[in-house]
Amino acid sequence: MQQFDAIVIGAGYGGASVAALLAHAGKRVALLDRMPRAAGKVQWLDRRGYKIEAFGAVGIPAENSRFHELAALLGFGERAEFIFPQGDMARIYYKSKSDGWRTMLTGLKPSEFNPESMERLKQTLGVGDEDIMAMASVYATAMALSDEEIADLDDTRFSDWLRPFGLPRAMVDHLGLTMNALFTVTTDQLAASEAVFTLRQLVLGGAGRYQKGGYGRLAEMCAEYVAEHGGVYRPRETVSEILVENGRAVGVLTKNGEELRAHAIISNAGIQPTVLQLAGPAHFPADYVERVRRLVPSLSIAGCRYVLDTPLFEGAFITIFSDEGHLDDPAWAAMLRGEWPEVPPIVIDVETAFDPDMSPVPGHQIANFQVFVSADPKSPMADEAIERAERVIEELYPTLKQHLIRREPYGPRMISSMTRDSAVPGAGGEAVGLAQIVGQIGKHKPDARTPLAGLYLVGCDAGGRGAGTHQAVDSGFNVAAMVLEDL
Ligand SMILES: Cc1cc2nc3c(=O)[nH]c(=O)nc-3n(C[C@H](O)[C@H](O)[C@H](O)COP(=O)(O)OP(=O)(O)OC[C@H]3O[C@@H](n4cnc5c(N)ncnc54)[C@H](O)[C@@H]3O)c2cc1C
């Protein structure tokens, strides 16, 4: 039986970062993940030499982020090469009932917006100067709020916060789709505090960070760091149980029947699987267990990974939407009833636009499109979403099929099998983790210190804030500080 200071279950960005930070502080850490490669939801897949992002990855903020802080602290230097495309790398497609498709290319950073790009935005969305001023006022207000004022927005829905600015519908949809993509929840559920916090990061640091070698490369480097600093990193190692003795988490049991012990057990496996399955509800107060069961997961994403024999998609990041709207509660309820918009909101990440070396063949393109679906791994929604989205993409790129070398559909079932077990009905395939919605965010968010002594949560369910992977790394920093204080 091996003894460690800390055992981390899962090497997603939350788990990998907390493990490396604890190793950096001199602790002996075991990092275990059931997958062959670290990075969880942003790991890459090897397909005959093509390095394909499993689920898609574009980071916000692109600069001055927790990723940069982590790489600097761990001394990765130039080995952690961050890529941030400059210039007009984002394409918008907007379909209006009256005029059909309009499109534009733009920058990924508000500071790249200039009179010319504003003119293109006005034409694409069919809005006027006063509407652009109203949008500027949204950003200015977000920037002017103090941290306390942002925290006061925990109980305010983003849609309610946005309404008084009087934006025209097309701009509400544009901003709404950005929020849908960042948080994978409807704008009627999204807590304004999280939205405003991330809007500020967007203004200060832009969108679209990537890393040479794959979006998950920094997580892989963190896992390697643990092994190089007195600890152990074990891929392909599933934890089947958290061991509890005398009211304290003391270790883990692996699927192979091995027992590992530590003073702190930190789980990146998700709050519901951790509490309800790995440790078991008997070790927690009944009201906590009930709360954990009722936590709402973010929505999921379905899509396709493409390898193309030519650079078909221009730019690095493409958003496609229409005057049928973004994802608010009524739109989502209609989709659940099977009433789909003609253009479901779609996002396309083009990873080779960030790092061409992800393809072994120069000029080949790797891209990944995404549509919103239920987090339920058993939901049949993904197939229909993919079919509908592909119809729209083929309308915009009629030669798509003839350039396809590889096409891999995915959805919540695969997301769950690769990253998070389904511990309550309807959950497991969530794209982010706990939904960043009113009632379970900020002061209402579960504590990363669980009521079971010695057991901590890390990743998108506790301990951090921000969009997707940034929330996970923020949690890694905060939970490392918490565990070091307790050890
Ligand atoms: C399709 C899609 C697109 C996305 N696009 C973006 C994007 O562009 N930008 C962005 O910032 N975010 C994006 N996200 C969200 C982002 O990927 C997640 O928010 C983030 O990666 C979650 O990190 P995490 O540390 O919380 O956990 P995860 O990434 O879920 O990692 C959990 C890890 O725990 C391991 N694990 C679970 N159970 C066990 C067990 N019992 N034993 C051992 N190991 C276990 C899993 O194998 C996994 O590696 C996207 C997500 C999806 C699904």
UniProtKB/TrEMBL annotation:
<protein>
    <submittedName>
        <fullName>Uncharacterized protein</fullName>
    </submittedName>
</protein>
<dbReference type="InterPro" id="IPR036188">
    <property type="entry name" value="FAD/NAD-bd_sf"/>
</dbReference>
<dbReference type="Pfam" id="PF01593">
    <property type="entry name" value="Amino_oxidase"/>
</dbReference>
<comment type="similarity">
    <text>Belongs to the carotenoid/retinoid oxidoreductase family.</text>
</comment>
<dbReference type="InterPro" id="IPR002937">
    <property type="entry name" value="Amino_oxidase"/>
</dbReference>
<dbReference type="GO" id="GO:0016491">
    <property type="term" value="F:oxidoreductase activity"/>
</dbReference>
